[in-house]
Amino acid sequence: MAANGINFTNPYSTTPVCVPARRELMTGVGPRTHGDRSFSDGLPMPDLPTLAHTFRDAGYQTYAVGKLHVYPQRDRIGFDDVMFNEEGRHQLGLAADDYEHFLSEQGLYGLKLAHAMGNNDYNVRPWHLPESCHPTNWTAREMSRAIARRDPTRPAF
C-alpha cells in the first residue's frame, strides 16, 4: 500500500488526545485554530470545512460509522449520514446513540457498560455481552451495510 501512496515515517499529532485529535484530523488545522487544546467534548466543531465536506463537495458519498465525539451530538460535520457510537456522553445531555438503540433492539438496553469499566480504562476483562453486540462488530457490520447500500456510480468516502 505504501508503494502506491504516501508513507508517513514520522507522523505525530499536535493534540494526541481524543476529541482535539479528531478535530485536527477532520479540519486539518491545529488547536490554535480549531480551539480545543485539552478535551472540550462540549465544544461545537469550528466553522471550518472538514475532510468530509471536501470529499462530499467533490462528488463523493460520505458516510461515517462509530465514534466522532462531536457536539452537538448529531452534527454530521459534512458527512451525508452517520451512525454514532458515542460511548454514552450522557453527561452532556446527549440522547441515546445508534449503538445504544441497537442494544435496545437486542433486549440489552443499559448494559453496554455493565462490565464496570470506564470508557478510557486500560483494564482487561472478557466482553460481557454476546460477541455480535461488541462495539467493534457493530461498527464493522454497520459500515459494511453502508458500503453495500452506496450508489455504485459514485465514489465513496
Summary of the model, kept short:
With 157 residues, this protein is mainly α.
What would you note in describing this structure?
The chain is mainly alpha-helical. The protein folds into 2 domains: 13-48, no CATH class; 55-157, no CATH class. 28% of the residues lie in helices and 5% in strands. The chain is built from 5 helices and 2 strands; from the N terminus they run H-H-H-E-E-H-H. The chain has helices at residues 18-27, 31-34, 51-57, 98-105, 135-149, and strands at 63-66, 81-84. The radius of gyration is 17 Å and the shape is globular.
Number of domains: 2
Radius of gyration, in Å, reads 17 Å
Q: Major β-sheet, in short?
A: 2 strands, parallel
Number of strands: 2
Roughly how many Å apart are the termini? 18 Å
SSE sequence, one letter per element: HHHEEHH
Shape: globular
Biggest β-sheet: strands ordered side by side in the sheet: 1-2
Proportion of β residues? 5-15%
Protein structure class? mainly alpha
How much helicity do the residues have? 25-40%
Unreliable stretches, pLDDT < 50, 5 or more residues? none
What's the arrangement of secondary structure elements?
Layout: H1 18-27, H2 31-34, H3 51-57, E1 63-66, E2 81-84, H4 98-105, H5 135-149
Parallel strand pairs: 1-2
